[in-house]
Amino acid sequence: MRTPLFIALPALGLLAACAVNPDRLDAPQGKAFERIVTNAPGVASIEHYEVLLPAREHLRYGNQFSGGFGAYLPYAPGSGLSYRSTEADGRLLFWGLGDRGPNGDSPKVEIKGKAQASKVFLTPDFVPRIAEIRLTPGQHARVTRTIPLSYDGLSASGLPLAPGNTGATGEVALDDRLQPLAYSPRGIDPEAIATDRAGNFWLADEYGPFIVKTTPRGQVLLQYAPGKGLPEILAARQPNRGFEGLAITPAGKIYAAVQSTLDVDGKTKNLARFIRIVELDPVSGATRQFAYPLDLDDYKRAGDVKLGDLVAIDDSHFALIDQGEGKRGTRNVIYVIDIAGADDISARLSASGKALEYASAAELASLKFIRKQRVLDLRELGWKPEKAEGLALIPGGFAVINDNDFGLKSEISGDKGADMGAYAVRDGQLNHQGRYSLKPSQEATQLWLIRLNKPLQNWFSR
């Protein structure tokens, strides 16, 4: 059982802790606000904000690695982003989104002679939540409140779903002492957010992949799953590569982007030449699927491509983030795409009668893919984080936010060096005299406002 933190505090420390203002903001790791000078074509201005947290939004932590983090971990609201409104005084309001909670890569776990993937969860009781972010232009951006997610009155969890369930990743959840944790029937890994006209939230869940509808208070109303409202083939998503982007068009249709290529039969993640984007009509329940073409010349393997987020410009045009480790380093590229005229691939198969992911380039020559046009590369503007995972339209341009993985990174050392894959957990212990740790990454949550010289609606050549 975790020892309550206050037991170890002297009386004066306890009084000081009780006196902390829950609205006190973090000191920024860098600058709370910075204007970035750029001569990039098409870009009028760039504003960089470090998203600040009030003390009440920190996650209490006092276990194995508290020497590096102290008593708290920072909440990370950058897995998804949606523009809400601009207030009369010019402040911008956004909805941000945290994913399944502080977790780190860890060695495989050997169970009955079989090696299974694992993740270490530092705060297993974490409840995934939505964040309201208020940005004061030229000053700062801050989280003003959060909305926890729940199912039938019970708190959601970030822990994986049990094997055999739709959305199970095959991962073993471990605590920070490498001991197994229980699976959760309410596990959710939210990665994108949008709101409908009634104020309900729609979330992309990476576990399923699922599309989740909640009330404005975060209570789950509906969950669409492969075979239950969504095409069954989506169950072939790569583990932890389910839906990553989600958008709602003015007509009210839902669009969800799988993060990466499907891995049908465990054979197609590097064969496929496209990523699926799904259309859902929440009124009729009808779905369609479209093929987003990959920039295969820029990546070593098709399976390395990851989509970040998706946002609707109108009923057929969207902006999205295309990213991953490319041949020449990390890519974070924003495209405008057009689904009008793209083929519905729901019933399309390869020449051999298998899933379309098996089809060769020659077979796909007649397929009408989603059209795409590059807008800019965030890296060329000075973007440093690995993951640009939230994208929102704002007046005159768009906003981008990074997922900093709750500001932590995992490390391992021992007889096999620093390669995580060279070790295994057996009966709760690392082999090869391994030493595992999670440390602060020093990466803050960053929110960029990028304004363009022409409306994004006019960017695509029609």
From TrEMBL:
Domain Phytase-like, chain residue ranges per copy: 153-406
Signal peptide positions (record): 1-19
Listed InterPro entries: 6-blade_b-propeller_TolB-like (IPR011042), Phytase-like_dom (IPR027372)
Alphabetical keyword list: Signal
Record carries keyword Signal: yes
Name of the molecule in the record: Esterase-like activity of phytase family protein
Species of origin: Uliginosibacterium flavum
